[in-house]
Amino acid sequence: MDDLYMRMALELARKGKGWTTPNPLVGAVIVKGGRVIGQGYHQKYGQPHAEVNAIASAKEDVTGATLYVTLEPCSHFGKTPPCSDLLIDKNIKRVVVGTLDPNPLVAGKGIERLRSNGIEVVTGVLEEESQKLNEIFIKYIVTKEPFVVMKNAMSLDGKIATVTGESQWISGESSRKQVHSLRHELAGIMVGIETIIKDDPQLTSRTLNSRNPIRIVVDSQLRIPIDSKVLTQQDKAKTIVATTKSANKEKVDTLKQMGIEVIVTKEKLGRVDLQELMKVLGAKGIDSILLEGGATLNFSALEEGIVDKIQSYIAPKIIGGKEAKTAVEGAGIQSLKSAFQIDRMTSVMVGEDLFVEGYIVK
Fold first, then answer.
1. Are residues 329 and 295 in contact, defined by beta-carbon separation less than 8 angstroms?
2. Are 106 and 99 contacting, i.e. CB atoms less than 8 angstroms apart?
3. In Å, what is the CA distance from 280 to each residue of 45, 122, 140, 263, 275?
4. What's the confidence (pLDDT) of residue 67?
5. DSSP string, 269-283
6. Under a CB-based contact definition with an 8 Å cutoff, are residues 191 and 201 in contact?
7. Residue 206 confidence (pLDDT)
8. How is residue 46 annotated by DSSP?
């Protein structure tokens, strides 16, 4: 039965997607006498944790109950008091944990505290699912750098546009809806300057009751048009422009006067140093980034090792054309043994498109 109740806790945790960053997604279920008497999840950053909400929702006294929680209860004071102390005070008899918390402030201390107070603790129940749920948090809390998802939509022959540059829409409506949900879930969305110049996108989420990610434009020579939507529509979402020290100083000042944050990195082969940029963005609390290209930036991101996960929507279309753009271009690799390897690949149909997901082998 432990698996059953942990799956319920995982489903609850997913409700917090997009709202808890940079905190983890956590769900909790309280069971007593074979009945669910309380449940809750971490709803928003700075608000009560899942355990607190589950206990508050309980229909009866939780003394002697079992609490299922997807992530180890915290044992330190942060925005809220330690959850481990609450479980002890409420006389919870047994705690079942999905995965340990990698946060150095917790890292087993919550479980140790519970056990030292006579509470039975079981760990590793649906651990793989629990870790995947919080893959963003796990990377960010350990490295202080964002988890990067490289997303693209392509035809069956790997094209992201026709020879004339037409790209809307290669993927189907169901795929586009899923992408907008992902924009809500991740803290930032990053594109290269060519995407801004060519498409002038808003880079916002059009999902109902959603939040917009911080827009990050990689623009080494600061070519961004002043009338771009990402600059003029600051009421929709914040925009950060990343550039290099060789960029025009007057334009840097102009952008700052418009309220745009400009990050200046050192140059790497004449381009923005993406590794340095990740460190800066991580320090600003941006725990995750949806990388939407274009093709040159995608290759640079892979080359510099900042990409964690790949998501591709493959449409049932063949476009062809030697000059038609592909998802990843740049300089390319010289030999197959240097190819970027992907593992843990999965696939599923999303409407008419094949959705493929995998993780970059570091």
1. yes
2. no
3. 21, 38, 13, 8, 9
4. 97
5. TTEE-HHHHHHHHHH
6. yes
7. 80
8. T
- Copy the structure tokens of residue 67: 């609490």
Q: Give the end-to-end CA distance of the chain in Å, rounded to a whole number.
A: 36
Partners of 188 in the β-ladder: 214, 289
Distance between CA atoms of residues 137 and 130, nearest Å: 11
Instruction: Point out the residues of the chain with pLDDT beneath 70.
Output: 76-81
Sheet bearing 66-71, strands edge to edge? 35-41, 27-32, 66-71, 94-99, 120-122
Q: Taking the CA atoms of 301, 154, 355 and 25 in sequence, report the sign of the dihedral they define.
A: positive
The catalytic residue positions are 51
Query: 305, 275 in Cβ contact below 8 A?
Result: yes
Name the pTM for this structure. 0.92
33: left (phi over 0), alpha (psi -120 to 50) or beta: left
Cα angle: 99, vertex 291, 41; to 5 degrees: 30
3-state secondary structure of 135: helix
- Chain centroid to Cα 120, Å, comes to 33
**CA dist., res. 207 & res. 181, Å (int):** 6
Helix-strand-coil split of the chain, %, nearest 5: 30, 25, 45
- Tokens matching residue 178: 């899923």
